[in-house]
Design a protein that fits this description.
Length: about 160
């Protein structure tokens, strides 16, 4: 059962999420291995992010990746629905989102002619949550043509 009214009606929502300064230090130093370890802690059962996501929708597990998209050479993603996952999220680690050209996250109902909802690269700590194909939604990310887009991308099953 979807508990968030915006998520229930729109299929997506934008929230604020506090990230400790140690996350910023690891992004600045590009210490992706250490950052990945912190994200495991951040998504563990009972953690703040886990609790916030559980307030949106019940699930049993979280997976994540650190998604870094950079120009030149980035390509548009394809429309996809994340299969059997219940909920997706994108937690921004962008320090200078205004310097990023492209890298928009788009959502729409599958097989719909309605224009997709478009989220430009978000500032640090913004959390976009969205429903997956199980609820009839799909998404994609456009190519980054200037700058670097860094997010924690995750899925709840």
């Amino acid at each position: 059962m979807i508990k968030n009214i915006n998520l229930n009606h729109q299929g997506h929502d934008l929230l604020d999420f506090y990230l400790d300064e140690k996350f910023k230090e690891l992004v600045l130093s590009k210490n992706w291995a250490k950052l990945d370890q912190l994200i495991f802690d951040l998504t563990a059962s009972g953690s703040p992010l886990h609790q916030l996501l559980r307030h949106q929708l019940d699930f049993s597990s979280i997976e994540h990746i650190i998604a870094i998209r950079s120009a030149p050479g980035d390509e548009d993603g394809i429309w996809h629905d994340d299969g059997s996952r219940l909920l997706g999220f994108s937690l921004s680690l962008n320090l200078d989102p205004e310097k990023i050209i492209g890298g928009h996250l788009l959502f729409k109902l599958k097989e719909s002619n309605v224009e997709p909802v478009i989220y430009p690269p978000q500032p640090w700590g913004k959390l976009i949550i969205f429903l997956s194909g199980l609820s009839g939604y799909e998404h994609k990310v456009t190519a980054v043509t200037e700058g670097h887009r860094i997010v924690i991308a995750g899925w709840c099953s």
